[in-house]
Amino acid sequence: MGAVQPASRQGAIPEERERKAAAVMTIVFFIIGLSVILSYDWGSPTPQFRQDAGLTILLGILISAIIYIAARYAASGPGALGMGLRFCPECGRQIRFDATVCPYCNRPLP
User: Fold this and answer.
1) Helix/strand/coil (H, E, C) string of 4-30?
2) 68-109: per-residue pLDDT in tens?
């Protein structure tokens, strides 16, 4: 009987991306919700929004949009210092795009 080879991490890469996307969306909705909560006048005897409620909510939406766009750009764009990144098909780790051998598992790359 042969030794069992460890499973490739290729299936884990989309799961990791989905987890990161879900975390970004959670942060975005948290900031928008926080801006709505901060726009409410909590000291008022009757329920009402503050005078600057529209600006507060708009600022929350703007900050959320910037975070969302930055996260999308970071996930699909080139890596640090303009170097493109890719994943090793054997071990699934992120490596430089121009690498010919994976530095982690020593697998030759196409």
Assistant:
1) CCCCCHHHHHHHHHHHHHHHHHHHHHH
2) 888 887 766 555 444 578 888 889 888 888 888 999 999 998
The whole-model pTM stands at 0.56
Are 6 and 12 within 8 A, CB to CB?
no
Which is nearest to 17 in space by CA: 103, 77, 76?
76
- Encoding tokens for residue 109? 């790359």
Amino acid of residue 45:
P
Using the CB atoms, write b or e for 48-78: b if 16+ within 10 Å: eeeeebeebbeebeeebeeebeebeeeeeee
Strands (E), 1-110: 85-87, 94-96
Q: One-letter amino acid identity for 107?
A: R
Collapsed DSSP state (helix, strand, coil) of residue 55: helix
pLDDT per residue over 3-19, tens digit each?
444 444 444 566 777 88
